[in-house]
Each structure stands twice: as C-alpha cells, then as structure tokens.
Amino acid sequence: MAIATVAGTFSGLLGVGGGTVIVPLLILWLGYGEREATGTSLAAIVVIAAYATVGQALYGNVDAADAAVVGVPAIFGVVAGTALQQRLPERAVALLFAALLIATAVELIF
Amino acid sequence: MEYVAAAALGFAGGTLGGLVGVGGGVLFVPALAIFLDESQVRAEGTSLLAIVFVAFVGAWRQFGYGNLRLRDGFVLGAVSPLGVAIGVAVANAVSERVLELLFAALAIAIAVQLLGRTLKRPSPQAPRGREGAGPPP
Fold first, then answer.
1. Cα(first)–Cα(last) distance of chain B, in Å?
2. Averaged over A14-30, what is the pLDDT?
3. Could you say which of A7, A13, A82, A108 is the most buried, measured as most Cβ atoms within 10 Å of its Cβ?
4. How close does chain A come to B113, measured CA to CA in Å?
5. Residues A19, B22 contacting (CB under 8 angstroms)
6. What is the DSSP letter of B93?
7. Domain limits for position A7
8. ipTM score of the complex?
9. pLDDT in tens, B64-76
C-alpha cells in the first residue's frame, strides 16, 4: 500500500510510470526477485499511468500525436528489452537499475 | 530530424523499460521536451500516455515469461490513485526546479540501498561474462 501511494505520487509529479520507485521497493521491502519485480512493476504502471494520463489530460497537458512519436518505437523497444532481460543474470538487472537511478539523479541536478 | 531523434529516444526508453521494469518516462520526457519542444509539464503528461501502451506490452511479454505476479501488480495499481491525484496537483503548483531536486534525492537514496543489497549478496550462479555489453565479437 505504501509502495503504491509513493509510486503514484511520483508518477503524477514527474510524468513517469512510477516503476523507478516500484521496482526497488518490491525488491528491498517485499523480497521479490529482480525479474519478477520488473514484470509486476510494468503491470502496475499500466494502471497508474492510465490514471495519471487522465489527470494530466484534465489540465490539458497531453499531446496524443507526440505520444505516438515516442510511444510507437518504444513498443518495439520494450519487446526487445524484455527479451534481452531473460538472458541476463538477475544481479545485472539490479546493477543496471542502480545505474539508471544515478544517471537520472545526475541529469535532474545538472 | 527532431522526429527521428525523438523516435530513437522512444525506442531506447522502451528497451530500458523492458530491461528494468520502468515505463520509459525517464527518456520520453526529455525526448518530448528537447526534440518536440514541449514544456516540462506537458512533456510529462504526454509521456504518461505513451507509457500506458508501452507498459501494457511489456507486462504482457513478462507474463509470457512467467515474471508477473498479476494480483500484486493490480493491487499496486488499484490503490495508487490517491498518490497520483496528489502528484498531479503538486506538479502543476510547484516550480520545476523543486520537482527535479526532489526526484534526484529520491533516486540517489534508492540507488544506494539497491547497490548495498546487490553487492552484499553472495556471487551469482549465472555466468558473469554475459553481463554488460553485447554479444562477443
């Protein structure tokens, strides 16, 4: 419940699905394996991002054409990414995730 | 050219999303803001719409691989609207710089915990040679 509320807040705040929060908390708090955490996170993100999209649309902040420009290639990307993930050790997934978090923080600060 | 760059970042965001279980917004938002000239808040709103579809396809693939606890995923999603409502309202009220620094601090705190846990764990059974870069030449 706490994970969901924190993830939801950041999703609405920052325009991300909340996975950045969900994945590590599922691993750290609920003892999920890395692959399971990422799969379950994606399912939660579908619901969370759908709520958040409606919220942002009410503020007039959604551009459907631009969403397609990044979203359609991204659908091919996610199929490739999930397939690639099955071939990586779970430890590599965790390290990749930590690297993503640090890169995100650096980009936001500077 | 801007569209090609935005699409490339979109593909990269999707790949990253599939690899680490995020929606890809981390790359969608800059793609929209930098290459398609959207404001930060509008880029975030637009990114969310793309994420709905990308995460759906990713979750469907992970379900096929046996890596999805469907009930937990829906519980997480179902109890989050309160958080989303708070987040959307705050995003439209607070300065962008505050949002950026807030998220940066959170990301660093989580990364430190995750690294600590991963590095403390005993060596993995899986072959180490396949981590990181692509296939051998």
1. 32
2. 78
3. A7
4. 8
5. yes
6. T
7. 2-109
8. 0.86
9. 999 999 998 988 8
